[in-house]
Amino acid sequence: MSADAGVTAMGIDHVRLSYLYLDQGDLDGYGSLFAADARIVRPGERVVRAHVESGHAGLSVGKHVVEEVFGVDDRVTVTGRLTHRVTGREVGFADVFALSEHGLLRFQKTYFFVAPG
């Protein structure tokens, strides 16, 4: 699916807002950025869309620092760092998003970077 530049820009704004809402614990705001049939995939978990709808606090685990955002057509990719709220441990992450035709987030998959060892 190809998106026009306006939809891509709107999607990038929604992605940036998603981190702000998560970090503030505003799960209603976070959920409002996603299409009704959206899927969210986190490492080691099944699809967690239902958690967004029910206000699952486990989605808000720390503070995100967005380093780079790339948007092309109906895809947005983000790299950054996440500092865990409780442990203070910092880990690099990448999120891949797919956009709906209206710029809402319809898919998110998260990857975490850890040092090989």
Description of the molecule:
A hairpin with a 5-residue loop joins β4 and β5. It is built from three helices and five strands; from the N terminus they run ααβαββββ. The protein has 117 residues and is an alpha+beta fold. A five-stranded mixed beta sheet has the order 1-5-4-3-2. The protein has helices at residues 5-24, 27-32, 49-53; strands at 34-41, 62-72, 75-84, 90-99, 105-113. The model has no long low-confidence stretch (mean pLDDT 85). The longest helix has 20 residues, at 5-24.
CATH class: Alpha Beta
Sheet of most strands? 5 strands, mixed
Question: Helical region count?
Answer: 3
The CATH topology is: Nuclear Transport Factor 2, Chain: A
Low-confidence stretches: none
How far apart lie the N and C ends? 39 Å
Radius of gyration: 14 Å
SSE order: HHEHEEEE
Mean pLDDT over all positions: 85
- Please state how the strands of the largest beta sheet are arranged side by side: 1-5-4-3-2
Q: Find the structural class using helix and strand composition.
A: alpha+beta
In a few lines, what is going on in this structure?
The chain is an alpha+beta fold. It is 26% helix and 41% strand.
Essential attributes:
single chain; 117 residues; alpha+beta; Nuclear Transport Factor 2, Chain: A; 5-stranded mixed beta sheet; 3 helices
Secondary-structure map:
Elements: H1 5-24, H2 27-32, E1 34-41, H3 49-53, E2 62-72, E3 75-84, E4 90-99, E5 105-113
